[in-house]
Amino acid sequence: MSAIFDQGPPPPCPAVFNMAEYVLSGAGAPDGRIAFEVPSVQGQPGRTLSYGTLRTHVKGIATGLLSHGLRPGDRLLFRLGNRLEFPLAYLAALYVGIIPVPTSAQLTAPEVATLCQICQPHAILTDGSTALPEGSTLPLITTDLLRDMHALPPAHPAMGDPNRLAYIIFTSGTSGTPRGVCHAHRAIWARRMMHQGWYGLSNADRMLHAGAFNWTYTLGTGLMDPWSVGATALVTPEGTPVSELPMILAQNTITMFAAAPGVYRQMLRHKFPAKMPALRHGLSAGEQLPAAIRAQWEATTRTTIHEALGMSECSTFISGSPADPARSETAGRPQPGRRIAILHDTAPAPFDTPGELAVAATDPGLMLGYLGAPPLHQSWFRTGDMAQMAQDGSVTYLGRADDMMNAGGYRVSPLEVEAAMTGATGLTACAAVAASPKPDTTVIALFYTGNADKQALRAHAAEKLARYKRPRLYIQRASLPYGPNGKLNRRALRDSFEASHDGNDPA
Questions:
Q1: How far apart are the two ends of the chain, measured CA to CA in Å?
Q2: Which of 110, 96, 101, 54 minimizes the C-alpha distance to 79?
Q3: What is the DSSP string of 463-492?
């Protein structure tokens, strides 16, 4: 039998739709209910925002963006960190048909310049502290201006075809050039499949997410999804130490916590309170959750972690959930409404046989396509992830089919890292590889030839690459391995390193 698992079609998205208008409706949440909360940390006062204030601020900012010359279809590049202005402006842009382009606050000026060349934004939203492209003449909209827009008269939502472009996010391309992932307004409607297929989400929940706002995992799971059902989203202040998270979970009646596996690993190094009576479970995505981390969390908190498998192009589509926990050593099952296959070459593979994980092209959460590329026309969207599927739909993740690396939940192309490091003084050749210096820990390692100084390489990386893309290990080699066709053999480098554990020199 072919490894295709069909959970039935999801409810169709309304024919006239706007993503932000849907989120702000909060499933009928009253104006007085708390939508957003920043807990008190290390003596800093907390902050709350009601649904009524959220709606007023977003609609006022939407009016302000239009008054600053932006028009429906224009692209607005986001250059700001984890602050409330990020989701307010994101929703405001969507509300009036402006295309938000979230980017990581960690990006360097050269990286931002590259994204500007690709997406051609009409303006940049800035907090004044994140890097901007040097010499840019694009109009700047500051967070101070955004706050002045809160009291402006409300804009009207730009309603329309749910299949029209809503927002663009960037992911590392296999060619080494960032790729713009274009999502439609219907993407938020498709996320309803996760509400019970992964979260077990209701309007009574208080969701805390530990990620950056530019990450789709944070924006979707941590903010948009809770708001769309009338729940409360909590975010810690910028710079909150991981050591504070266990106490925040205990003292703020958090019912659901979401983070990447690396955050769970770091949290478990610190002391936990004896009880966290409100916490129902944790959520994990971005990279595979090590079994040892899961077991330690469950023993420490007496709660489970439900893991999800997905990607920027389609968010998550396979998961365990409170109602349907994943079988041991699997990533879970396709969420209700999903159609998933395991492909061998171009045809579905048999059950329990390794192949490439694929999502039906009809999935409403699947992207429209990559910026500047033709629309998707295949029957299946191939993810580049290797997996195998049991007859009950349980999927076991087997790793990437290519050399793409995973850095704290962000997929990073080795070619992008290698291109940035080329030109460093004393470096003659290099290869970026995801390597494991110890069990349950994976980092980006740069193998290189030449007489380059390691400290100089680190300084070069800091100038050219966002922190999550920078190598953690720098390992000198007399030569790099190449195959008979002249292709760099990154797998041989990783295997030899992990077999010997030499060169363990954290950057």
A1: 49
A2: 101
A3: HHS-GGGS-SEEEE-S---B-TTS-B-HHH
pLDDT by residue (tens digit) across 122-139? 999 999 999 999 999 999
In whole angstroms, what is the distance from residue 152 CA to residue 155 CA?
9
pLDDT at 502 over 80: no
- Write out pLDDT tens, residues 35-74: 999 998 877 788 999 999 999 999 999 999 999 999 999 9
User: In this predicted structure, what is the pLDDT of residue 175?
Assistant: 67
- What is the token pair recorded at 148? 């002045």
How far apart CA 421 and CA 430 sit, in angstroms, is 8
Instruction: Say if CB 431 and CB 418 are below 8 A apart.
Output: yes
Cα separations in angstroms, 325 against 196, 305, 337: 11, 9, 17
Q: How buried is residue 264: exposed, middle or buried, by Cβ count under 10 Å (0-12/13-18/19+)?
A: buried
Q: Order of strands, edge to edge, in the sheet holding 473-476?
A: 427-438, 441-450, 473-476
Q: Are 170 and 103 in contact (CB under 8 A)?
A: yes
Q: Determine the Cα–Cα distance for residues 339 and 193; give it in Å rounded to an integer.
A: 12
Query: Which tokens sit at 271?
Result: 């002391």
Quote the CA–CA distance of 446 and 490 in Å, as a whole number.
10
How far is the C-alpha of 139 from the C-alpha of 142, rounded, in Å? 10
Residue 230 phi, psi (nearest 5): 85, 20
Q: For the chain, give the number of residues.
A: 507
* 380: nearest Cα among 349, 413, 336, 405: 349
Distance CA 33, CA 226 (A): 12
| Joined tokens for residue 117 | 């060349």
pLDDT at res. 69: 96
Are 394 and 326 a contacting pair, CB within 8 Å?
yes
Question: What are the DSSP E strand ranges found in 219-354?
Answer: 232-234, 256-259, 281-284, 304-311, 315-319, 333-334, 339-344, 347-348
**Using an 8 Å Cβ cutoff, are 82 and 36 in contact?**
no
The Cα 255–Cα 278 span in angstroms is: 5
pLDDT at 485: 58
Q: Phi and psi dihedrals of 291, rounded to 5?
A: -60, -35
216/23 Cα distance (integer angstroms):
15
pLDDT reading at 402 higher than 50: yes
Percent above pLDDT 90 for the chain: 70
